[in-house]
């Protein structure tokens, strides 16, 4: 009997507690979850400070920390492509076969439903307090971002001085020469 | 004796009556018209809802409907390239040899005139009422878009449920996870 | 009622009588045919001497010459992409919706059948005498290539001095500097 | 204290017992292993029959089967880039920070040693009998390929009819039209 | 003994007196200067009117005019890449080995310092009056742009009618068809 | 009065005495020479061992050594593009305006003559003894390659241990894992 697989894609800049709650809940609904790390090619900007590799570490260690059965999840970095009409095939190329997509994004929902996939709304959580934007803002302003993320995220950011990187990037640039 | 060929490029999102009027008038001035479908790689967005293939059907059927002699036009989808300095060569690679370009766009006019082409202003029509923007707005808001387009456009949009696609895409996205 | 559409893809370097026979026979089986001009980005080599635009002219004029109803065919140039797993979506993006693919190529057959398309063998014709390779060889060696192609191909090749182009390209290159 | 991480890259077409032996031995030398799935963009050819996603499943399940501690490995699909001089940075972008590269390939060894990495020869195993080429040849010829691979590889290939795919791809193509 | 080389990158749209002052001062600090012409692929827009080739002429002739020793500088056009994490390697691929980067841009500073380069602030000059933006604005509005640039820039812009190009590009485009 | 400019393109792997002789002779025929460093993106292979930046140093220093007037030459690295029909525009984008192309390559000659350029055969020299292939072979086999190249090439290759690089790359690779 084939397994029921669902996919959930996020930029994870950085991995925070909201991601972990969503993954937990999706695992109650499917046999295996594919976790796509979106915009894998982006890094070193205020909105996307961390490389794909750094985000893979955060997520991998956070799931191991949490004791999630490693045969039940796949972590896949995904680069953007500039062709909406090829996006579903691109995701399929990079992932195990799946039948359900969890997304709240209208474009993603439209593209996958045109290809015959079942689209489900991702489980709810406290989105106002727990967002990548909130974590990054606290990092820049010296607030308590650590309470919003798993230990694995804290460890990786310390290992690479990620805190300093995002602060440096936030300094206003001098005008063009 | 070689034929005089003119080229006219538009995004055709979707094909509407203004495009058909322009094509009619250009055919009074040249032997053959090349109709470029621009930004062929874009689809599934509010500004570019339809794929290149869908736009080719609209245009091809609208010209057949109208009884335009098929030996007098060429329909060519064209992807964007991000190098202005290569744009003229890119268009030439994809098309029959031509000598006149019809365009109201300053960049296109400048690029082609630097390469020695004759640039002509496209024939006038009622641009305020007949624009891609107007057609797409009416589709989203449930207005009468059908009166602005040829039957071929209506038929194709019905065949692919294009109406529903653009409405879905217009729903406000939930905030980033 | 939706139309039955079939697709047939060839490099058409150049368009020859074999292509025209195949198109005729496919039109007996489907309502509309999509004719893909493959490897659209290639030109100016011994194996691919003609640009996409030049091949579009040959095919368009050959079909008009033959009196094929213009509402029954679509001519679409297609660039190669280096991702087999995205090829079917790429073709779908560029074309009207279709359900049948005509191909004798194992890779194409495999890719489309994995996506649920009906794959048919293209109609037979005299493939030994009528191939792009044979036409190009005769052009280089000064043989009678004209008997293998429709008039439209002869006209276009004369218009662009295509004969001279392929002969020049066949001169052995001097060694690298 | 930072962990010692080593990286090992292979195309894994498909994952076989030799890969598993190498991974076991590397894990005796480092804290964490990064396993790169190379040429991730290739699939559906005789030399590269499986998509990146299919290879991820094989490897992920084979490691779970074997009981390897999930906090000690990372599986990262890697697309080729056509710039040797950017390869090391590309690998670094996609992976956790690492200091040792395991490779028997001269180009890879040269590129990484120019950037100051420690390069180690991958642990030895019976390379004559255990290679991707041998597995694929047996699949095409109907031999016993199953004895060369972990159960996870067998399961995935059965799930996607991979056996039939590679046999179909091996049929000689008819000549170009 | 190896030479100390420093690199300075600018878009040079167009080359102006500020660039020349910076280059003079950097040459007091290093043995050889690498001058990168950034965004080499851009041209024919209001913000980037000139091609890479045109900018190379301006800079090359301005340095010869000034009598700078030709064995002490390198002029290298550099196309943008959309991967911040690969940018340093891309610059290294295109240039002689160097150890110091002169930049006032936070992203550039961060990327190069993560790779162990010494980052220095470019020498100061009168940035308010001497900027590419100021030169381009004066060209469009018919002001005295010539006083802000070296003779070589004036000569090249005259040779290619660059004045007319930027004026044409500044005409407001008619609305989309 | 506009200057007569000629262009000469070579891969320069590495710069050798034949290149210098050609440049000398072309400078007797034109006011300014544009020297294109071809396949700029390639490096670290047996046929293309050196990066674009390394080749720029060799050429720049060799010309300074020789006392060639720096206002009379331009050195431009050029990446390959996979579209023959765009090649002429790509070269034009990267270079000062020119009217003559020096090339012995049939494809280059055909492409530029179709665009109306004057094509000249590069001046002759002893091509059997003086080729990039010969220099690279001697480097691998430990022969006297130094006598075939200018001092600038020797200096740069010593600075980067280029000798060792090409020897390492020539070691036969072990079979695929």
TrEMBL record, chains A, B, C, D, E, F:
Primary residence: cytoplasm
Protein's pathway: Cofactor biosynthesis; NAD(+) biosynthesis; NAD(+) from nicotinamide D-ribonucleotide: step 1/1
Compartments, record wording: Cytoplasm
Any Gene Ontology biological process: NAD+ biosynthetic process
Catalysed reactions, as listed in the record: beta-nicotinamide D-ribonucleotide + ATP + H(+) = diphosphate + NAD(+)
Enzyme Commission no: 2.7.7.1
Cytidyltransferase-like domain sequence ranges: 7-138
One annotated Gene Ontology cellular component of this protein: cytoplasm
SUPFAM superfamilies (alphabetical): Nucleotidylyl transferase
Keywords tagged on the record: ATP-binding, Cytoplasm, NAD, Nucleotide-binding, Nucleotidyltransferase, Pyridine nucleotide biosynthesis, Transferase
InterPro entries membership: Cyt_trans-like, NMN_Atrans_arc, Rossmann-like_a/b/a_fold
HAMAP family in UniProt: NMN_adenylyltr
Family as reported in the entry's similarity comment: Belongs to the archaeal NMN adenylyltransferase family.
Protein name in the entry: Nicotinamide-nucleotide adenylyltransferase
